[in-house]
Amino acid sequence: MQRAGIAAAGEISRRYSDRLPGGAVVFTGPGNNGGDGWVVAGTLARSGVEVTVVEIAKAKTAKSPDAVAEREAAIDSVKLADSAPDGAAIVIDALLGTGFEGEPRGKIGEAIATINELHERGARVAALDVPSGLDATTGQHSACVVADLTLSFGGVKRGTLLARDFCGDIVALDIGLEYARATAGKKRATSVPPLPMLVDAEWVRSRIPPIRFDAHKGTRKHLAIVGSGKGMPGAVVLASRAALRSGIGLVRVLVGPENVSPVLAAVPSALITDWPSNETQIKAEISTWAHAVVIGPGLGKSEETRSLVERILSDSTIPALLDADALNVFEGDTKSLGKLL
């Protein structure tokens, strides 16, 4: 709770330094999300910000002892009020957290409506972990806070990605959860699922091997992409361009006969041919030529395409990534697919 609140206060201070001299209002609920709010309130107040806390529901020791402790630690440095002051510039939503499901009712529902009214009047709203009233898993909501900034603790919650219009900018704050997993006992560490990872440019760069100054297409390995059924050339075009941008040496794209010309026009630097019709062609153009194969982008779902996938997987021992229709053609028959892998 301390880590989450301090990290959130730091991000709020960084983003809204021009508004904080006008003060901040924190709406707190009865649970741990409210406790996070008390940490934010105390941290901002100790940095010189005038902080008003609107305590919608008081935490109870039996249910949220940490929240009670954080309230006691911060209460002398903030102003308690029954309502937000006029002209609030920064509003911090700490009413409901990730455990909430259903419809906000009573004072919590009224507080959500108040926060949204302040937002409409020009206040900037920062939500702690998730906007209150939003289901952190499904993104469903009947009434929820509309935030300009959502400060997600430890990792981005799926629900916020499904309801982006209510979340504003989403920032994942590192609060040491992965470190806690690594240092926990073996039994506990294996029982806690790993946090989801966000694949961004930095993540990708750290995993692509550097390209030597004397590298060329013959040393950067080969990729085969099989897909593009009738009327669906787009997916293999995107896959081919992505592969070439990664720095791979050569890309061969095997597509439906009617798509050879459009794919060639879209990706002239790739080798383009139609789907292999026999095992000899599979060996020459995929199994013995490529170092890996991607099967499925825009492939289409038919007996012909299932047979194509089966023949490639039966013949080849290179790493294979099955995407989209390469999986869909085995719908209801996963045992057959399992035997090929």
Q: What do these coordinates show?
A:
With 341 residues, this protein is an alpha/beta fold. It folds into two domains: 2-191, 3-Layer(aba) Sandwich (Rossmann fold), CATH 3.40.50; 216-340, 3-Layer(aba) Sandwich (UDP-N-acetylmuramoyl-L-alanine:D-glutamate ligase), CATH 3.40.1190.20. 38% of the residues lie in helices and 16% in strands. The chain contains 14 helices and twelve strands. The chain has helices at residues 2-15, 32-46, 65-74, 106-120, 158-162, 177-183, 186-191, 201-205, 234-245, 260-266, 279-287, 303-315, 325-328, 334-340; strands at 24-28, 51-55, 79-81, 90-94, 124-128, 149-153, 169-173, 222-226, 250-255, 271-274, 292-295, 320-322. The strands form two sheets. A seven-stranded parallel beta sheet has the order 3-2-1-4-5-6-7, sandwiched between helices. It has a five-stranded parallel beta sheet with strand order 10-9-8-11-12, sandwiched between helices. α2 (32-46) links the parallel β1 and β2. α1 (2-15) packs across α2 and α2 packs parallel to α3 (65-74). The longest helix has 15 residues, at 32-46. It is elongated, with a radius of gyration of 27 Å. 40% of the residues are buried. The model has no long low-confidence stretch (mean pLDDT 92).
